[in-house]
Amino acid sequence: MVIGIDASAILSGKKTGVEVVTTDLIKAILRNDPANTYWLYTPAALPVDMQGEHVVNVVVPGKRFWTQLHLSRAIRKNPPHIFWSPSHILPKLPPQTKGVATIHDLAWYLLPQSYTWRARLMSWLTVRRAIKQGHHLIAVSRHTKKDLKKYFQVPGDNVAVVYHALRSDWSDDNTNPNLGEYLLFVGRIEFRKNILQVLKAFQGFAAAHPQVKLVLAGSPGHGFKQVQKLIKRLQLTDQVLSLSYVPTQQLPGLYRHALGVVYPSLYEGFGLTILEGFAAGVPVMTSNLGGTKEIADGAALLVNPQDIDEMNLGLHRLVDDGELRSSLIAKGKQRLQEFNWDISAQKIINLWKQL
C-alpha cells in the first residue's frame, strides 16, 4: 500500500509546534513501518536520511497555494492509496485516494479575536474541507476530539486521538543563559497565549520578587504590539525580557535554569511547552482547561487563565513553595514517560489498516 504524506513542514527553517511534531512523527512512522511504501511530498528535496527503500521523496515545485494547487495536481496525476496531512489542510484528492487530516485545535473558531479575519477564513475553509473530504481525522488530544464532535458534529468513530511526545532533538545541554532568576514562557507571542493577562499577574508578583524576570521566548504573533505596549504601561521593561525565536539547541538550557515554566494559554489542543518543562525538571504552571489540563494530568499547577489574581497566586506558589515545586518536578518526570513517538506512530500505522 502506498501512503502519501505532506512532508513540507520538515523543510521549515525555524521549526515551532506543528513543524516539530510533524517531523518527529513522520520519522517515527517510517521507523516503525517497513511494510508500506511512503511518498513524502515536498516543494524541495528532503535530506538524504529521509529517503530509503520504501520511502520516496516526491518533489512538487511551487510556492503560492502549494497544497491546493501544485500538490493536488501531483496527486491526481499519480494517486497514492492513502494521503495523510499532518495539519488540517488537505489537497483535492481523487476518488480512489482515502484522505486523513490531523486537527491540532479549534482555537481559530473558539477564540476568533485572537486571529486575523484572513487566518480565520482560511482555517474555516480548510477544516471544513478536511471534515467533509477526509475518510478519518486525527486529533492530538481527547479535548480536540471533543471539540470536533461538539462544534462540527464529527462522529466520534471518525476521530482517532494520537498524542505528541517530547521533541526528539531535545538535548542534555545545560548551558546557563546567564539571565539571573527568571520565569519562562515559550511559545508564539500572541493573544491566544494569554500574554496580556500573564503580564498583569506578573506585575503583582514582581513587586514582591524584583529580582525575578519574566522571559518570553517566541516569535511575534497576532497581538505582539499590544504586548509591547502593556509591558511599558505596567512599567515592567526592566523585568520582562523578550528573546524572540530561540534556536532548538539553546532551548534545553533556557528551560533548565528557569525557576518555572508559565503557560496559562487560553486554548491549546496539546501544549508541547508542558512536556519540555517536564523534561527540563522544572515546575510548570498552566491552564485548568482544554488540552493543557489533559496533558498536564495533575503534574502541573493549574490556574484559571482568565483570573489575574489566581495566576498571581500561582506565580508565588511556583517560586516560593518548595514542597510544591519538588512534587511538581517529580510528577512531571513521571507524566512525561507516558508520551512516546513510537507508540503514536503505531496508532497511525494501525489506522492505515482500518481504512
TrEMBL record:
Classification via InterPro entries: Glyco_trans_1 (IPR001296), Glyco_trans_4-like_N (IPR028098)
Cross-referenced SUPFAM superfamilies: UDP-Glycosyltransferase/glycogen phosphorylase
Domain of life: Bacteria
Gene3D superfamilies referenced in this protein's UniProt entry, alphabetically: Glycogen Phosphorylase B
Pfam families: Glyco_transf_4, Glycos_transf_1
Domain Glycosyltransferase subfamily 4-like N-terminal residue range list: 17-165
Alphabetic keyword roster: Transferase
Domain Glycosyl transferase family, residue spans: 172-335
Transferase recorded as keyword: yes
CDD domains in the cross-refs: GT4_MtfB-like
GO molecular function, one term: glycosyltransferase activity
Name of this chain's protein: Glycosyl transferase group 1
Organism this protein belongs to: candidate division Kazan bacterium GW2011_GWA1_44_22
